[in-house]
Amino acid sequence: MFGIFISMKIGLYLPILTAFVLVACSGNGRKKSEIIWSQNFPVIGSQSSPRTEDLNKDGTLDIVMGAGKNEFQESDMGIVAFDGKTGNLLWKQHSIDQVFGSATFCDINGDSIGDIFIGGRSPQLKALDGKTGAVIWTYNSDKYKDDSILKYARYNFNNSVLVPDQNGDGIQDLLTVNGGNALANPYETRNRYPGVLIIFDCKTGNVIAADTMPDGKESYMTPLCFSQPGGKELNIVFGTGGETISGSLYVTTVSDLKAKKLSAAKVVATETGHGFIAPPTLADVTKDGYLDIIAITHGSKAFAIDGRDHHTLWTKTFPGTECSDNFAVGYFTDDDVPDFFTFVSKGQWPNSTGSLQVMLNGANGNVEYEDSIGCTGFSSPVVYDLDNDGRDEVILSVNEFDCSLGYASTPPREVVNKLIFIEFRKKRVEVIDEGKGVKNIFSTPWIGDLDGNGYLDIINCQYYHHADLLLFLGMIIKRIETPVKIKKDVAWGAFLGSASNGIFTQKK
Questions:
Q1: Among 467, 483, 341, which Cα is nearest to 414's?
Q2: CA 163 vs CA 118, 229, 266, 280, 403: distances in Å
Q3: What is the pTM of this model?
Q4: C-alpha distances in angstroms, 341 versus 95, 287, 389?
Q5: CA 278, 283, 284, 286 torsion: positive or negative?
Q6: Residue 103 and residue 105: Cα distance in Å, rounded?
Q7: pLDDT tens digits, residue range 226-248?
Q8: Using CA atoms, how far apart are residues 136 and 302, in angstroms rounded to an integer?
């Protein structure tokens, strides 16, 4: 695969958008990538990542994202759904603040269409009808203001994952975390409150179980739920701490959460001066059939924790950097042990001065690949074997500007956003999609087969650049169809993987 150039202009502000699209090496009938559709929306933006479900039953997956205006602003496009075939807006839903979570799908009204659970600031957690976008239920923090535990659940709802049915209604339930006061000052413990781990009844929104963090710290990390071979318990891994607040990584069980016994949770890793923000990745790196826990702190210390007895398998630290991106997982080396890729920001936000991309060998934690491309960002990578050579590539979004000066001291006037892939065998980097005057700070791309034609599709999001990297001025969402023939399932094609649960089980 090599790049060819396509030029196009889209949108109110007419940024220069280009695509260096993938070209097929083999005679599979499709020669190059095509931008199937591209939609432009003024004013709004997103800190969410696209996830997919066939909402209109036309055989093509559709796209759901959280969105909105800038922080603390209402929007009539706080949650949006796009037709995967045309890119047209299927429906929109109002929000009182940014909805930065990504969608979780579960059919609770019996129409065979996944309904949507998604959260954000102020605090917002909603269940929406997948077909129409109508609100089924919404969380009301005022209802719990006198509750000894849930009185703290009045801040941010982060991403959620499904857990097996906990109340006997035959429908899976929802595990999530609430925490993080945006008004608390860095390094200060004042105005910081304990995060709350919660299981909701998917059908009604009623709270099935809730408890505060064992150490009383805030929590931003998406919890994961999993079981081990032969185990009767459902395990939960969750984390505490923030950008400047120490924290720990814990393992507990659903039964202990239901019994309000998070205090009994086991500490499996800890970090001083930083917490665990990015969700971990679960994969078997010891080849014993148990899911191991691979996590990275905000201070860029990576841990591999044995899933059987929770001892530390290996650690790796990247001094002078920060990380809010979880590990993408795939087979990047020649062995059959999963490997891990992420990128970290040099320096300290908001004075980050660059980005470092790293790939760690899953067997021992050794750095097998390192590069320095672009500037700060919090969009996680996705993974697929693009050239069918038995070794996976990563696809990630990078922003380019003069970040050596530090963002806070010299906000960038111009940003170029690129969607790239990295081939580790030849240490080759190529551009898939590029835009001038646009950025992508938060949104993980989605890859998979939208229409079932056997070829890899990419959903890529870009946002018009404001002088402040975190402010929104409009967004572009596009579907790119590639010549890459899908010869194995896409295991890590979205934020937290294609199954949206952080678990990697694919065999090489």
A1: 467
A2: 15, 17, 20, 17, 41
A3: 0.94
A4: 34, 19, 19
A5: negative
A6: 6
A7: 999 988 899 999 999 999 999 99
A8: 40
